[in-house]
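Design request, tokens follow.
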């Protein structure tokens, strides 16, 4: 997971262009799960237009396959504790039947009170 080394911790200060050029998917979520940022890399890999993700609830409208304890549960617990830094393997199950094995890193940013989700394809 070299690509995420330090990226999560500095994601708050990266410009939109810098986020878009990262080799990993980056998603910033509000405490209620609303998508605040969705980089171009994630848009291309997930086949979800950035404009279709922004402002929507990630767990209900963008990636409903993540509304499970393993993913959503960790997010909720991290938001409640205002502390989250976890890495885990996950399988995205897309609506079109595709499956993608990924590595998820989630980080709670105290400065913005948001959660950054990094999606890496192994």
């Amino acid at each position: 997971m070299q690509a995420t080394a330090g990226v999560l911790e500095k994601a708050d200060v990266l410009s939109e262009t810098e986020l878009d050029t990262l080799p990993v998917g980056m998603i910033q979520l509000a405490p209620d799960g609303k998508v605040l940022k969705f980089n171009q890399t994630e848009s291309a890999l997930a086949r979800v237009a950035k404009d279709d993700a922004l402002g929507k609830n990630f767990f209900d409208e963008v990636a409903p396959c993540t509304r499970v304890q393993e993913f959503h549960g960790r997010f909720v617990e991290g938001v409640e504790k205002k502390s989250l830094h976890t890495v885990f393997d996950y399988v995205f199950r897309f609506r079109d039947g595709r499956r993608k094995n990924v590595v998820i890193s989630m980080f709670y940013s105290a400065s913005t009170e948001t959660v950054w989700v990094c999606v890496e394809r192994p």
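Comment from the thread starter after seeing the answer: thanks! The helical segments are 7-10, 16-20, 40-46, 50-53, 58-62, 69-81.
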